[in-house]
Amino acid sequence: MEFSIIDSKLFTSVFDNMKQFSDQTKIKIHPNGLHLQSIDDANVSIIDIHLKKEYFIDYNITKDIIYDFSLTDICKILKICAKSRLIHFIFDNNILKINATTNEQDIKKTFEINSIITKDTFIDLQKLRSTNLHNITIDSKNLQNIFTELFIFSDDVCIELKEKSLLFYTTNDTINTKYNISIDKINDTTLLSKYSLNYLSKFKFCSLFENTTLKLNSNTPLILTNTNEFIESNFILSPKIIDIE
Amino acid sequence: MFFITNKMSHKYYNISNIQSGITENHTLSPQSTIKYIDFLYETLQPYKISQNILHLKLIDPAYDPLQPIINDIDGYICELEYLNINTWDKINTFIQTNFEQSTEIIKTIQKNLIDTQKYSIFIFIKSNIGYSIPLFIDGNDIKLEFTCDEKIVFMSSLFTT
User: What does pTM read for this prediction?
Assistant: First the structure.
């Protein structure tokens, strides 16, 4: 039960990003790849990531096992291994052994992490997708900039989908802001939801991808989806109460 | 001034689904109610001990689902306790001490929560200026948001496994 990676940038980013929200992650290793899921401490956001086996080299996982891991521990090790030319992961019962070979001086580093083999308590995202969500794909860097900038003014953002516009509103005691993105698709119904900018601005992982798909509906969880040939990432965030004032 | 949420009717106007975080009108299953209330208790217990000031925002659609009551308070958790036959004497005394008109409240809670053995919790939040919000939560029929220093502590639209 083992696999290796050569370019650890994406892999490290996955864990670094999860660590912004939680101290623990569940990792399901299975013959087709890795499934990671973590929920933040307040249980209002989920990061759900599928890494396909094609991302890895020498992928040799023959059965499904779910582990609970400390993100702090994994991130420490991955940070040290960032410049390694090869990182080799070996699962042996409760132990994850990570071997890293450095480019310089040919030092072989070995780390062993204790883990807990746990039961399947992954949240089924298909249930979340069953509602009538509207999909809008926009440039990831623009989206990340919007969240970062609006977080300067407020802790919450109202996202509205109206006709051919996607609108982001914030308000505080002195400043109201409105960002408007034109979209091609005409929407018959107006959708409005409110979300925490603290969470959205921390999800910098999406900026690794060219585009991000927002899936939203009124007062339902917002889903940010990023995909490429190796990975499918979903960030799901619960809606906040919209003040009726 | 005391604000009482009318949570004791048999009709529920649940606006959150604990397992999906989706805000729709339906009642939590008994098992989800236990998870929801246990998580609420565990989350708030440290704040009761620390007496940190929390911001609570709530929507209670029990009186009128079309025009739900929205309320805010900045306060500390004065009382946090599961509501059941074992804790009822303590909470009963607390209500008599802290509520101006307690008879009707006690009778309603006794009838709808204690006698029916509903898995429920009592939270009493008080501000420094005397305003307070008592909550009797027996499911997810009001929507709550607790924040501390702008950080989300608890929201009704949470995800659990």
Answer: 0.88
